[in-house]
Each structure stands twice: as structure tokens, then as C-alpha cells.
Design brief:
The chain has about 260 residues and is an alpha+beta fold. It is about 40% helix and about 20% strand. It has two domains: about 80 residues, Phosphorylase Kinase, domain 1, CATH 3.30.200; about 160 residues, Alpha-Beta Complex (Aminoglycoside 3'-phosphotransferase, Chain: A, domain 2). It comes from Deinococcus aerophilus.
Length: about 260
């Protein structure tokens, strides 16, 4: 991805002149630039990213006013690239060292944020990210050879994408506890501002899925950043009565293919 940003003319009309900083952290599959008040994502059309920026635009529009997300400012296609512009939410992402200094507050904020998201009315959500959809996408990615097997979690190092997919099919849960999910609920995708989570970002995979699709990734992210004790506190605060430990393992396995 080019490290300079040239905006399409329609976006230049809606965004103020600014100095854009290229963000090099994150795994969204898109190039990200930020200014003081805005963020622009740029992604090649086609290929196999986690999702298209058009999908993220649609989800931002639906989520706006329901939960805290960036305001969508514009979307354009120019040449072989998509451009998505949105407001920048002030604060620090939940993996920032300054946020991790207050682990008990953080796990409480994360549990509350996901409970609120998961409480949105299922019947109103137009985006289907349930297992039939996600397993079909996983099969396509495996067949296309685009899964990065070198990025598998430690316990699956040395395995193949085909082997992981076959296990997903063999151990598929019989039922899904469908709620509105974030879809990539790792710590960097929660923006903390003081005593609140002021924003959910990178929502291109948001939609109806089993609640464990979110809980599994937040639990894993907390384990890596703070340790197992705080990851377990997060599950307690979210509500143990809603949690199936086998499903947590399953959805971490599914995430390996995306």
C-alpha cells in the first residue's frame, strides 16, 4: 500500500484539508490514515480481505445511533481502490498501555459494551454473519489459498487451513445463540475515553452471529494483553450463564481462517 494518501475529488470536498498520518498497526486488510478529526481507509477492490469497505459503510450507517461508532463521511471507488472516510473517535484503543494500566476498569467496560451491543433487537439487523455464511466464506478462502497459516495461534502452529476447516465442519455447534455482534471484538477495536468506551471501530464483519463469536475474541485478546485472570473476570462480568466454553474454542478456531 502506498504510504501517501491522495483522496478522490468527492472526498476532498467533504473533508477539511489536513495532514494525514499513515497508521501501520492493525490487521484490517486496509490502509488507514488519520488526521486530527477524521480517518480514511483505503483498500484494493477484489482479493480476499476480511470484508469490503462497502460492507463496513453499510454497517456504520446501521449502527449509528444504536451504539457508539464513527460517523460515516463518505465512500468512493476510484480505479482499483475503495475509500471510506469517517470521523475519528477521541481516546485510546483498549490495547494501549495507558488503558491496560487499569485492568479491572477495562474488563468492566468491555463486558458492558458487549452486553449493550448484544442486546440490540435481532429482528432489526439486516446483516447475516451466522455459521452458514461464515463457513461458506471460510471454504472459499481455504480453496483460494489465501489463509495465512503462519499467523495461526500458538496451539495451532504447523496445522493447515484445510485441517482447520475440516475440524470446524466436524465440530460445528448444533445451535447458535444469535445476537448482533461486532465480528472482530479484539481490544484494538474498542476506543476508551476516560470512564467509557466511546467507540467501536472496524465493524466490517458486524452482524447476526452467535454471541460467542465476540466473546471468544475478546477473551483471547484479554488473555494476551492482561493474562488469564482478567480474561476470566471479563466472562464473569458479561454473565457466565450465557457462556459455553466449547463454543469459545470453536469461534477462536473459526477466526483462524479470516
Amino acid at each position: 500500500m502506498n504510504e501517501t494518501l491522495t483522496l478522490p475529488v468527492p472526498l476532498r470536498r467533504v473533508l477539511p484539508a489536513a495532514r494525514w498520518e499513515h497508521v501501520t498497526v492493525g490487521e484490517s486488510g486496509a490502509g488507514v490514515w488519520k488526521s486530527g478529526r477524521h480517518v480514511v481507509k483505503v483498500q484494493a477492490r477484489g482479493g480476499w480481505p476480511a470484508g469490503t469497505l462497502q460492507q463496513e459503510r453499510e454497517r456504520l450507517r446501521w449502527l449509528w445511533g444504536r451504539v457508539p461508532v464513527p460517523r460515516m463521511m463518505g465512500y468512493e471507488i476510484e480505479g482499483n481502490h475503495e475509500y471510506l472516510a469517517m470521523t475519528r473517535i477521541p481516546g485510546l484503543d483498549a490495547s494501549h498501555p495507558d488503558v491496560l494500566l487499569h485492568p479491572q476498569r477495562l474488563v468492566s467496560l468491555l463486558a458492558r459494551a458487549l452486553r449493550e451491543l448484544h442486546a440490540l433487537p435481532v429482528r432489526e439487523c439486516p446483516f447475516n454473519m451466522s455459521l452458514p455464511v461464515m463457513l461458506a466464506r471460510a471454504r472459499e478462502r481455504v480453496a483460494a489459498g489465501v489463509v495465512d497459516e503462519t499467523d495461526f495461534d500458538e496451539e495451532r502452529r504447523g496445522r493447515t487451513a484445510v485441517g482447520v476447516f475440516n475440524e470446524l465442519v466436524r465440530t460445528r455447534p448444533e445451535t447458535e445463540d444469535l445476537v448482533v455482534t461486532h465480528g472482530d471484538a479484539c481490544l484494538p477495536n474498542f476506543i476508551v475515553n476516560g470512564e467509557y468506551i466511546d467507540g467501536l471501530i472496524d465493524v466490517g464483519r458486524a452482524g447476526l452471529a452467535d454471541r460467542h463469536a465476540d466473546l471468544a475474541l475478546t477473551h483471547r485478546s484479554l488473555t494476551r494483553n492482561l493474562g488469564a485472570e482478567y480474561a476470566e473476570q471479563f466472562l464473569d462480568l458479561y454473565g457466565r450463564e450465557s457462556i459455553d466454553l466449547q463454543k469459545l474454542d470453536y469461534y477462536r478456531l473459526l477466526d483462524e481462517l479470516f
